[in-house]
């Protein structure tokens, strides 16, 4: 129970490690794929935002004084209006900041708006200091671009950051007096290096997790193999113990069966010694011979029991064996008034086994059936093929088998007849078992007893050997 529980938790750990490692690798792959896509999406947003911001400033071109491009600053109301338009235009683009650049002897940035609509610090109208020179240069270039040209977009590494800037001239006059600018902060080189380090660490950890999971899997496989070996060993030991117990019962039965006729022989011989003239009669001699024959018959059946199923295996026609057995028993059946019927399948599959051993099984079953019908009855033998192989049934119309002894029918030396050895059905079971089949008593019949023998056919034996 403890080993099974440990293996259960170890399997759960393997699954969790594999699942977690694969998820990390998948997320890293997705992130690495999406990183360039983010910059492309940012470029599209910059282009659209610059166009919309330039269009929003068109109504205010007439409010810009002609001398604003020389040395005068724009009026405060115009600053507020442009700032309001900037916030309104950039509200649709989270993360962007922008405003306007007015060209002149004194450059001016107006209408500046922080990302997400934040209010700039007091007096702050310029872009962030580090980005101001590059934005000014790009805005000046845009003032002379043709009206049909798209916004000018550039991506630069400024310090630890990566910045994307789009600029577009306002109005149709060139050179224009004012340009709209929009900026977004992308993943900078330092951030990219940090992301790369994070990706590498997480990937290494994921690979370590996979290797650990594979190691645990190998260890689990070894544990399962050891458990399987242990179970096989226990099963083998149990089989040996059962075999020894069966051998003990067999020896006890042999001792009992041999002791009785030996006792009869001993007592007869002792009488001969004491009263040789009176006791040495033909009847006493017949009694000794009968006792010796009984011992000899018992030894023969024991040898047959020991050799059961060890004969050479060939392709055997079970129908022929049943037919031969019934012919041998027909004379005895006629003397007892027993009607024999054979229902043999014409398409019966051959059986891989020993013809001599299987003939002994059929003969034992038929003799048992005749012995329970001394004054008439009906004996039916049937064969058929089915999924498991080949089936032989031997049914009689005798008194049947009492329920209290059915479990002991196939035990060696168990018999209900005074002159029986109790080895007939035991030999049958041993032979059938060694042929890979089984023998059983059918308990759902209303009259008599029916024994069923199931044997694998040659096709099943071939497929089992190949697999």
What does this structure look like?
It is a single chain. The protein has 467 residues and is α+β, with helices and mostly antiparallel strands. It has 2 domains: 2-187; 310-466, 2-Layer Sandwich (Heat Shock Protein 90), CATH 3.30.565. The protein is 55% helix and 17% strand. The protein has helices at 2-57, 76-90, 132-143, 189-274, 276-279, 282-307, 318-336, 355-371, 424-434, 458-466; strands at 96-102, 108-113, 152-158, 161-169, 178-186, 314-316, 338-343, 351-353, 377-386, 389-396, 438-442, 450-455. A 5-stranded antiparallel beta sheet has the order 2-1-5-4-3, sandwiched between helices. The radius of gyration is 52 Å and the shape is rod-shaped.
Keywords:
467 residues; 10 helices
What is the residue-mean pLDDT, rounded to a whole number?
79
Largest sheet: 5 strands, antiparallel
| Total domain modules | 2
- What string, H for helix and E for strand, traces the elements in order? HHEEHEEEHHHEHEEHEEHEEH
Strand-pairing-aware structural class: alpha+beta
Head-to-tail CA distance between termini = 32 Å
Domain Histidine kinase: 253-459
Transmembrane segments: 199-221
Catalytic activity: ATP + protein L-histidine = ADP + protein N-phospho-L-histidine
GO molecular function: ATP binding; phosphorelay sensor kinase activity
């Amino acid at each position: 129970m403890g080993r099974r529980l440990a293996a259960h938790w170890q399997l759960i750990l393997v699954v969790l490690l594999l699942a977690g490692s694969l998820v990390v690798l998948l997320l890293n792959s997705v992130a690495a794929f999406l990183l360039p896509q983010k910059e492309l999406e940012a470029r599209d947003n910059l282009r659209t935002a610059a166009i919309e911001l330039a269009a929003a400033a068109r109504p205010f071109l007439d409010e810009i004084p002609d001398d604003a491009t020389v040395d005068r600053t724009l009026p405060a109301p115009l600053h507020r209006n442009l700032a309001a338009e900037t916030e309104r235009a950039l509200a649709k683009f989270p993360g962007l900041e922008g405003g306007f650049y007015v060209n002149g002897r004194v450059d001016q940035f107006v209408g500046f708006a922080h990302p997400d609509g934040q209010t700039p610090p007091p007096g702050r109208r310029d872009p962030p200091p580090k980005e101001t020179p590059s934005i000014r240069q790009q805005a000046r270039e845009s003032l002379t671009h043709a009206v049909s040209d798209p916004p000018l977009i550039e991506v630069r590494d400024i310090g630890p950051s990566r910045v994307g800037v789009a600029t577009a001239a306002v109005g149709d006059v060139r050179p224009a007096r004012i340009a709209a600018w929009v900026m977004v902060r992308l993943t900078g080189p330092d951030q990219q290096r940090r992301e790369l380090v994070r990706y590498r660490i997480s990937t290494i950890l994921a690979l370590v997790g996979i290797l650990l999971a594979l190691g645990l899997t190998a260890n689990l496989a070894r544990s399962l193999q050891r458990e399987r070996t242990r179970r096989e060993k226990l099963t083998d030991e149990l089989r040996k113990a059962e075999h020894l117990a069966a051998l003990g019962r067999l020896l006890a039965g042999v001792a009992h069966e041999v002791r009785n006729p030996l006792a009869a022989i001993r007592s007869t011989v002792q009488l001969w010694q004491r009263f040789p003239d009176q006791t040495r009669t033909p009847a006493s001699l017949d009694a000794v011979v009968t006792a010796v024959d009984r011992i000899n018959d018992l030894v023969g059946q024991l040898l047959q029991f020991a050799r059961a199923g060890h004969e050479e295996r060939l392709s055997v026609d079970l129908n022929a064996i049943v037919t031969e057995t019934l012919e041998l028993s027909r004379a005895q059946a006629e003397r007892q008034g027993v009607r024999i019927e054979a229902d043999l399948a014409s398409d019966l599959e051959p059986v891989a086994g020993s013809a001599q051993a299987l003939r002994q099984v059929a003969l034992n079953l038929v003799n048992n059936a005749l012995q329970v019908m001394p004054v008439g009855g009906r004996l039916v033998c049937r064969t058929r093929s089915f999924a498991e192989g080949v089936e032989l049934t031997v049914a009689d119309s005798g008194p049947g088998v009492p329920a209290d002894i059915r479990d002991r029918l196939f035990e060696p030396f168990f018999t209900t007849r005074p002159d029986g050895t109790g080895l007939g059905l035991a030999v049958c079971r041993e032979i059938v078992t060694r042929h890979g089949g089984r023998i059983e008593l059918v308990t759902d019949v209303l009259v008599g007893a029916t024994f069923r023998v199931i044997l694998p056919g040659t096709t099943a034996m071939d497929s089992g050997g190949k697999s």
